[in-house]
Amino acid sequence: MTQKELHNQRLVREAQAAVLRMHTRRHFIKESAMGLGALAIGSLLGGCMGKSGNNVTSGVEFDPARPLLPKAPPFAGRAKSVIYLHMAGAPSQLELFDYKPELMKMDGQDCPPSLLAGKQFAFITGVPKMLGPQAKFSQHGQSGAWISEHLPHFSTLADEVCFLKAVKTDQFNHAPAQLLMHTGSARLGRPSMGSWVTYGLGTENQNLPGYVVLTSGGNFPDAGKSVWGSGFLPSVYQGVQCRSEGDPVLFINNPDGMSRDLRKASIDAINEANQQEYTTYQDPEILSRISQYEMAFRMQITAPEVMNINDEPAYIHEMYGTKPGKATFANNALLARKLVEKGVRYVQLFDWGWDAHGDNESNSLNIGIINKYRSIDKAMTALLLDLKQRGLLEETLVVWGGEFGRTPMMENRNGLQNPFKGRDHHTEAFTIWMAGGGVKKGFSYGETDEIGYYATSGSVEAFDIQATILDRLGFDHETFTYPFQGRPFRLTDVGGRVINEILA
Amino acid sequence: MIVLISIPGILGHLHPVIVHLPIGILLLACLFELISMRPRYEKLQPAVSPMLFMGAMGSVMSCISGYFLSLSGEYDGSLVASHQWAGIATAAVALLYVFLRNKVAIPLRLSVAVIVCGLITFTGHLGGSLTHGSDYLAAGWTDVGGSTVKRAPIPVIEEAAVYADLVQPVLAEKCYNCHGAGKQKGKLRLDQPDFILKGGESGNTILWGKAAESEMISRMLLPVNDDDHMPPREKPQLTAAEVELLKWWINSGNNFTQKVKELPSDEKMKHILLALQSGDNGSTTALAADKIIPEAPVDAADAVAVDKLKKAGVMIVPVERNSNYLSANFVTAANGADSIIALLSPLKKQLVWLKLDNAGITDESLSLIGDFPSLRKLQLSNTAITDKGLSKLQSLPELQSLNLVGTGVTAKGLQVLQQSKTLRSLYLYKSNVKKEDYAGIKKMFPKVDVDSGNYVVPTFMTDTTVVTGKK
After folding, report:
1. Among A204, A207, B29, B35, which is disulfide-ready with A343 (CB 3.0 to 4.6 Å)?
2. Measured between alpha carbons, how far is residue B134 from residues A294, B23, B54, B86, B230 in Å?
3. Residues of B in Cβ contact (< 8 Å) with A436
4. Topology at the third CATH level for domain B303-451
């Protein structure tokens, strides 16, 4: 060490000593007071942070070792299971349930500027023409519900279902609107309704997943798999996508040469290793993993059995209009009934192909979409009747709807006339129906104006529908929360009203 | 958007804030005045004057803000007038006291202090009566048990007047406090038909025939935490039955005179009316028929017995959190059901729902559950149950829903269930009941929803054909 370095070192030490000497008792006490204050505020704010609020806020007991065990809802619910039929792409309310004779009179006229001022549409530009209903309507049942000729089977159930005719959304693109409908947020990352429900209620059959997703129509919904994701909830609550074609769950069968005993032995070994890992790290997610392996092993037996619709009698197939070996809405509807019968909590169906823009034949209201009507009409009618005759409808809530509605105007993509009849995305008012588990029968809530553009009464939004579904299952949507990133989250965020008017 | 700021409005609403300040200061000043007579507290003497000054100023401010608040017209005129004059008197005496304190003899000074205390108490009481209702103070002494009011039974409900005997007592108990003679919040007064018809400032208080759209009902149906919910969340709430009653009344049209028997009433309403007849305001039993679980409390089930069932694969779950009533589901214990069903016996009082669908049970095991006192829903679909087993179920006192889908029961066997007063739904799809028997069964069970199943969804030509653009 050179002389200079030594000198420097001494200088530093001297400076440090000088600082310490400046630090009088008075300073110490003063700073301690601040520090104590900081400590105090930390403990005061502690309630808002971390996991301390976990079981206090939602009251849901979460056992990481057995995350899917059935749990009691806060109050006895009217429904035990949910079947949600989502028509991805958004079906037109004006061709199915919302009868608007006045719109027919305006068919072909220019859209009045009052409807366009300040509005943004997905595809409509300039001044589009109005488009009258592309269907004949008639009244059905004692309730006198208007249902179009496109649903000849479903119209016989007019007195079984409850229509919400003025549903509103604030998203005019498919993916965000679907996310909003199922996760309560138009952006990615929130848990889906099925995840919330299985988190809160568990599931009755430990050999099957609690939340099953079935898709048809040739494509997944635009929002992708996030729409049945578990977001910030433990990952065991995400929807399990099953297939109605081929193996119900990919890789569910043991590969050639792997016997069930060997499979059991390997799962036991993996779980043993995981158990040791848990003893070391105490991470509850490891327990979840162990139980998932065990459930998967049991599912290898039960899932193929439940997911196989071939053991259903011919007249049931006839009733639903199934197509063996295909991923059709009818097959999925029959599967949904079988799953609910076996104690699955939440069955989510997505049927793709409803985006009736009219820019090609397959999505035109006068050709392609008619085939979509035909593909669901018989099946959803059969589903409701089959649930009813098995005594399951009184404890199952069935919901049908899209992510938004369709405009009373004909779409004019790029300012040009589309070659086929079609409508653009419409957020102001569309129709959803519910049936079963504690909602009124043969009832309709909400009305739209004479061309079906705006709601005139009984307007509800996604949060209200979610609040109502949770209510029927026995939850208060305002207190059913999960702590994440320092605050309790809920499905309905800061909105939602239980639609009391439709409760039975 | 232009926000109109009304200074008198703001000042008026500050009255409750301002008013407590002079009350405290003046009381303390008077207290100091009195106790400083004792040599020990002599030193408090100089504090009295400035305190009195502050208190007097504060009371003047209170008078001004109180005057503006009274302009809102939400309060009962005569009570406001006495409160106002008492307040002005307090302020005047306090001011005189401040300015003449050093010019009068000590005994007079002390008596003025006592007078000020008395005035403050009197004025304060009147103010309290205005905000909390004139019976607020007395209620604290007389009604310790809270707000569950047991009404006098109505001897003959059919003859009772809908408004005078049923509706008015509800309004009196839950609404008059803020919308009565004493106070008219939102300019609404509900204590006489004329005032009800006049409505409040938001209009549409009652739309005859349209209960759901009437402001009165729609506000009651808002979530309790909503700012517009009525009654405000800290006040006693209407029971579900009371809301139903008001809806029924409003839907019957402009009606202050009709009797119960003159209005149509559905099943639900009949239940509520019957409860009212027995003096129950609906907080306990009126909507019990609507509730899916029994209301009467029950002891917790034997934990050992529950554990045994769980080990056997039976799902035992409380029907709701914090309830001792249980549901049991054999979905994952269907195969050995007959051997473990006996384990249910210790749970007989708690069991409300029992799901035995597809379980391998026999008629014999039904004798075990034939006397479960709370059982409301029994699902026996696809089991080997026959008429013999059914006969064991005739004494279930609470049974509401019975699922016999895919069992061997016949129309003859169902006769034993005729006695049940509670049964509401009966599922008979794929049972041995013959098609021609259903007419008789429906006659046998006029109040029960009998589901025969066997629904057919016919196949139309359109179901199997595909529309294409090509002609």
Report:
1. A204
2. 67, 20, 30, 16, 20
3. none
4. 3.80.10
pLDDT tens per residue, range B272-294: 777 777 666 554 443 444 567 88
Rounded CA-CA distance A423/A91 in Å is 10
What's the pTM?
0.71
Contact: A501, B212; criterion CB under 8 Å:
yes
Closest among B225, B457, B322, B90 to A496, alpha carbons compared? B225
Asked if residues A120 and A171 have their Cβ atoms less than 8 Å apart, the reply is no
Euclidean distance between CA atoms B345 and A341, whole angstroms: 26
Which pLDDT score, from 0 to 100, does residue A6 have?
A: 79
Query: Would you state the structure tokens that stand for residue A61, as one six-digit string?
Result: 């007991």
Q: Is the pLDDT of residue B461 over 70?
A: yes
Query: Which residues 91-150 on chain A approach chain B with CB closer than 8 angstroms?
Result: none
Any idea where the domains of chain B sit in the sequence? 7-140, 157-277, 303-451
Q: Give the per-residue pLDDT at A44.
A: 60
Q: What integer pLDDT is reported at residue A330 of this predicted model?
A: 95
Q: How far is CA A57 from the centre of its chain?
A: 23
Tens of pLDDT, residue by residue over B417-445, are: 998 888 999 999 999 999 999 999 999 99
Spatial separation of the C-alpha atoms in residues B300 and B324, rounded to whole Å: 5
Facing residue for B460 by CB, picked from A152, A342, A457 = A152
Instruction: Say whether residue B466 is in contact with chain A using an 8 A CB cutoff.
Output: yes
How is residue A347 written in tokens? Answer: 């069955």
Of the candidates B323, B451, B468, the beta carbon closest to that of A388 is on B451
Distance from CA of A497 to the nearest CA of B (A): 7
Scored b (16 or more CB within 10 A) or e, A282-308 reads: eeeebbbbbbbebbbbebbebbeebbe
Query: Residue A205 is nearest to which of B221, B331, B468, comparing CB atoms?
Result: B331
In a mutational test of the A interface, the residue from B251, B427, B457 whose CB has the highest number of chain A CBs within 10 Å is B457
Chain centroid to CA B237: 5
Q: Please tell me if residue A441 touches chain B, with a CB cutoff of 8 Å.
A: no
Can you list the residues of chain A whose pLDDT is less than 50? 47-57
Task: Using a CB–CB cutoff of 8 Å, tell me whether A367 touches chain B.
Answer: yes
- Which positions 408-447 of B are in contact with A (Cβ < 8 Å)? 425, 427, 429
Give contacts of B321 with chain A, Cβ < 8 Å: 59, 72-75
Q: Provide the b/e sequence for A19-29 (b: ≥16 CB within 10 Å).
A: eeeeeeeeeee
Query: What confidence tens digit (pLDDT) does each residue in B98-145 have?
Result: 888 888 888 888 899 999 999 999 999 988 888 877 767 776 665 443
Q: Which residues of B touch A390 (CB under 8 A)?
A: 381, 403, 405, 427, 429, 453
Please give the full DSSP string across A222-280, using - where no structure is assigned: TTGGGGG--TTS-GGGS-EEE-SSSSSSTT-SPPTT--HHHHHHHHHHHHHHHHHHHHH
Residues facing residue B309 across a β-bridge: none
**Are residues B455 and A71, on separate chains, in Cβ contact within 8 Å?**
no
* pLDDT tens-digit series, residues A342-363: 999 999 999 999 999 998 999 9
Q: Do B427 and A474 touch (CB under 8 A)?
A: no
Counted across chains A and B, CB pairs separated by less than 8 A come out at: 116
Dist CA B206 CA B378 (whole Å): 44
- Write the single-letter amino acid at B48: V
Q: In what order do the strands lie in the sheet with B377-379?
A: B315-318, B326-329, B351-355, B377-379, B401-403, B425-427, B449-451
